Amino acid sequence: MYGSKDGAVADGTLRTAFAALDRQEYETALEQVSAVLAAEPDNATAWRVRALARWELASAGRGKVAQVREHRIEAIVAARRAVELAPGDIENLRIRARTLLVASPADALVALNKAVALDPGDPALYELIAAVRADLEEQESARRALAAERQRAAAETRWRMESETEPESGSGVGKFVIGALVFVIGFAFKLGLGFFVDEAVSDTPSTRNYPTASYKPYPTKGYPTTAPHAWPTMPPR
């Protein structure tokens, strides 16, 4: 499953590390490759095994959150080092892509494209590329949706702020308009009332066409009706 393609690797410690990976004993595999890297720090296969062991520990969620995060970071670092030492090894590129699927799908896609260029007949690479592209499209859609939601929230916030300030400024205008209307109505009322008062106390007959049956500016009993506005003359002393 995790067989090495480095023909020069004959070290028994690395064989033990590969066997531990197959048994899912990832801590044991880490111990074995640590011994190999102590003696051969530029061994690309050892770095690949280290990346695999770290990645499997992170995927299994073993340990606390901080430990899982450390496993993922160490897996990315180890896979990158393996590719640097053996850039033409497809397995190194594949492991590099796996470690970057969560942290950076775009970089994972770059590594997979390089692997396809080396081995265009591997169907597993195309399946992984399709999965990474779908993940990238989903992330882009999520980013667009988030941007649209932020714009909507910002517009709503501005609208609320404007709504809170408009009534205050509008209330002053409203009070002015209402006051002006009250003044006009009051002035008109005073004019009308003054007219009726003048009509009531004036000695000049009104020119209004009131109905004669109801127009009685004063009582008619005991007074001549021929001169409605001629008040009786007081007898001389």
Written overview of the protein:
The protein has helices at residues 12-22, 26-39, 44-60, 65-85, 90-100, 105-118, 123-201. It is mainly alpha-helical and 237 residues long.
Short description:
The protein is mainly alpha-helical and 237 residues long.
Topology:
Blueprint: H1 12-22, H2 26-39, H3 44-60, H4 65-85, H5 90-100, H6 105-118, H7 123-201
Strand pairing plus helix content: what structural class? mainly alpha
Identify the overall geometry. elongated
Low-confidence segments, ≥5 residues, pLDDT <50? 1-10, 195-232
Number of strands: 0
Give helix % range.
over 70%
Strand content: under 5%
- Average the pLDDT over all residues and give the rounded result: 75
Gyration radius, in Å: 50 Å
Termini distance?
147 Å
- The helix tally amounts to 7
Largest sheet descriptor: none
Order of helices and strands: HHHHHHH
Keywords:
single chain, about 240 residues, mainly alpha, 7 helices, disordered N terminus
